[in-house]
Amino acid sequence: QVRLTESGGGSVQAGGALKLSCTGSEDILSGCGVGWYRRQTPGNEREVVAVIHRDDTTDYGAFARGRFTISQDRSKNTVYLQMNSLKPTDTATYFCAQGLQYDGRCSGEYGNWGQGTQVTVSS
Fold first, then answer.
1. What values do phi and psi take at 90, rounded to 5?
2. Of 34, 75, 41, which is closest to residue 56 (Cα–Cα)?
3. Measured between alpha carbons, how far is 37 from 117 in angstroms, rounded to an integer?
4. Which of 1, 14, 122, 6 is nearest to 67 (CA)?
5. Per-position b or e across 26-46, b if 16+ CB within 10 A of its CB
6. Per-residue pLDDT in tens (0 to 9) along the chain, 123 residues
7. DSSP 25
8. Residue 67 gets which letter from DSSP?
9. What is the dihedral of CA 54, 114, 40, 88, to 10 degrees?
10. DSSP summary character for residue 41
11. Bridge partners of residue 59, in order along the sequence
């Protein structure tokens, strides 16, 4: 199974920026897309931050539009999440995941989660 590894988290002050990376042990960019999700409280559900599809189209959670940018580098098998104008409410563990296929079709669901990277934004 493909392994996803996130990196780039850290602690920043409000208004700062971070760039997260999600790298696959194998090709992750020719399938059903890659998404960034976050969990703000352990035990709560993850919420979608941004998704990049195989055709390079993107979707964002409402809170992320205008501040976050998802991109991919096929040569590095990596998906990035550039986060600008960070707020304390962005504090969370950020995960990446692959779009899942069922019966040869993209399901719209995401899984095969990485281990996550912590982002902490102080006021």
1. -85, -5
2. 34
3. 11
4. 14
5. eebbebbbbbbbbeeeeeeeb
6. 889 999 999 999 999 999 999 999 988 888 899 999 999 988 889 999 999 998 899 999 999 999 999 999 999 999 999 999 999 999 999 999 999 999 989 998 999 999 999 999 999
7. S
8. T
9. -80
10. S
11. 51
Residue 92: which H helix or E strand, with range? strand 92-102
The residue assigned the tokens 């602690």 is: 11
Q: What are the distances in angstroms from CA 53 to CA 10, 72, 101, 122?
A: 26, 10, 13, 32
Residues 6+ apart with CB under 8 A from 31: 54, 98, 99, 101, 106
